[in-house]
Amino acid sequence: MFKVCDTFVKSPTLMRDTYCKALMDLAAENDDIVALDADLVSSSGMKPFFSAYPDRAINVGIAEANMIGIAAGLSVVGKIPFAHSFGCFATRKTCDQVMISAAYAKLNVKILGSDPGVTAAYNGGTHMPFEDMGVMRSIPEITLIELTDPVMVQDIVRQVADIYGVHYLRMARKNATAVYEAGSSFEIGKGNVLLEGKDVTIIASGIMVSEALKAAQSLKNDRISARVVDMFTWKPIDQELVEKCARETRAIVTAENHNVVGGLGSAVSEAVVRTSPVPVEMVGVKDRFGQVGTEEYLKNEYGLTAAEIVDAVKRVLPRKKRGLFSF
Amino acid sequence: MENRKSAKELRVIAEGIRLVTLQELEGFGSGHIGGSMSIVETLAVLYGGELRCDPGNPKWEERDRLVLSKGHAGPALYATLSLRGFFPKEMLSELNQGGGHLPSHCDRNKTPGVDMTTGSLGQGISAAIGIALGNRMNKSDSITYLIIGDGECNEGQVWEGAMFAAAHKLSNLIAFVDWNKQQLDGFTKDILDVGDLADKFRAFGWFVQKVDGHDVGAILDAVAAAKEHEGAPSMIVLDTIKGYGTFAAGVEGNHHMSFTKDQMDEAVKKTAEKLEEARAAAAAEEAARRAAAAAEEAVKKAAEPPEEQPPEKQEEPAEKAEEDEAPAEEGEDNV
């Protein structure tokens, strides 16, 4: 069960610190937890883990493909490896290793890709993954999760360690807007309805969840009742919830810090058209490369804002065709 | 290892594997004959006793592991595993058949005794490193064996792994590179010349040995030396001929090829003859050994006064060893 915060401010805790602490707590209970990194321990905030568990922490150097293969091998003999790199390298440089050595081989590998989308900020276009989830989404049997805030990090990391299989986690390293109250728990594969509404559903993820809540607030002034869903599991997508939202609100807007091609917009659309075709508008990166800048600059540049969501809602509402569907 | 097989016994196993692999491929009509034939002797040494395993319990946790990174040589491994008793020989007809247990490239989820899924070249070394590293963390004495191809060394991941294994002193990793000098499109020196593989791995910090990859005795000695060596991973460079022992030996385009029934019949016939010769040689060696042992025993008995003797216990290990490590015998029956 989860509880949504009353106000939306940046969490004082860094996402990476929560991640490291969660893994250290797990490691204290379970000898099989192993951490791997590809020369980004200082960035990933995993130094405390590496100091506390030097025998179970491996810095493979700048060799991401080798890291994923090693993680796969470790899981062959019962280890539970958590491997990190920036989201761009954790996916683009390792696609085949994740596909064959981990997923196709049915092994137990956890991958953290940090600095998703515009949160890569000053690292610029080369380091700005708008495609990481899209790359991973085409791999069968993998679970894809975008972590919303530190409270979710704490809960999901623990769950993922217990569930056999390949998991890719996408997470901003630094501050995130706190969406959930401490102690909240989450169900992987189920979207969270954060706000009820009847005119439209905004299905958001990551940094766009708080933007969606702000947008819903603003839409109220126009007497538009928007439902807000945090679809933190991108794969397997919560088909049932998407269908329910399509049926009940008859219009959907997606919001993601990722390319809409192959991303959440695609995943939701695929779910919608199967049984409940209603109009969908997508807020996200429109098939463009990243670039350097502050997160705020980039959010405006790529239209990842509450204002953009409001516009998308206003575009989608006239497209609703009431009475067309029998449901 | 006291029960280590003799070179002559391993020769019997090797010819048995070669014969059964050819029969397996014959059933399908085409396949990766080149790279399968070049690793037969290495598989004979490993599954002839060097690699700790239990065919009755393929997932036995204490077993040694083999990562056949050049996964296209699956047919040779399948023949070996079947001869060793991991699955019935009849299953070999499932090679490349939809829904079967023997895909063209190795799959740990499909074939009993296959330890890692491979086929996308370059990836096996990393997986083997992970297994070796995990075993070290688990304080297990299991050895991880790895077979890579020389063409495979075109892949950058091989060298990422080479650097890592040496830096982490993974002495529980014993690797082989099948230096058969050919890759799919031609000779490795023409496609992308890898240079001197032994020098390269040595430069990366490995304990390197170079042997005739079709000489079971030489491979056996190299494995023994690798097991003894501390502080570094081992690389055994196998000087081999792609397609060895068949019509495919050294010919162009032998990575994956079709063959006629006549070609294959001839290869099977020749290999069966070699198997017979190897058996005769092994039997002669065994007879000589027994005769020598009996003579020695007789001399001992004559020299010692016949007092308290606990002879029962001494015989047991010898019998057990024969039972435990009898892949050749099983194979011969099947052949």
Account of the protein in words:
The complex is a heterodimer of chains A (327) and B (335). Chain A is of the alpha/beta class. Chain A has two domains: 157 residues, Rossmann fold; 128 residues, Rossmann fold. Helices cover 39% and strands 18% of the residues of chain A. Chain A is built from 13 helices and twelve strands. In chain A, helix 8 links the parallel strand 5 and strand 6. In chain A, helix 1 packs parallel to helix 8. Chain A is globular and about 60 Å long. Chain B is of the alpha/beta class. In chain B, the strands form three sheets. Chain B has a five-stranded parallel beta sheet, with helices on both faces. A two-stranded antiparallel ribbon of chain B has the order 1-9. A two-stranded antiparallel ribbon of chain B has the order 5-6. The C terminus of chain B is likely disordered. Chains A and B meet through helix 4 and helix 6 of A and helix 5 and helix 6 of B.
Concise overview:
The complex is a heterodimer of chains A (327) and B (335). Chain A is of the alpha/beta class and 327 residues long.
Chain pair with largest interface: A-B, 31 and 32 residues
Described by its quaternary structure, the protein is heterodimer
* CATH C-level of the largest domain in chain A: Alpha Beta
- Gross morphology of chain B is globular
- What is the helical fraction of chain B, as a range of percent? 40-55%
Tally of individual domains of chain B = 1
Q: Tell me the strand order in the biggest sheet of chain B.
A: 2-3-4-8-7
Tell me the number of strands of chain B: 9
Order of helices and strands of chain A: HEHHEHEHHEHEHEEEHEEHEHEHH
Main β sheet profile of chain B: 5 strands, parallel
Radius of gyration of chain B: 21 Å
Mean pLDDT of chain B: 92
Determine the N-to-C terminus distance of chain A. 29 Å
At the fold tier of CATH, the topology name of chain B is Rossmann fold
Number of helices of chain B: 12
Order of helices and strands of chain B: HEHHEHHEHEEEHHEHEEHHH
How far is the N terminus from the C terminus of chain B? 28 Å
Major sheet attributes of chain A: 7 strands, mixed
| Shape designation of chain A | globular
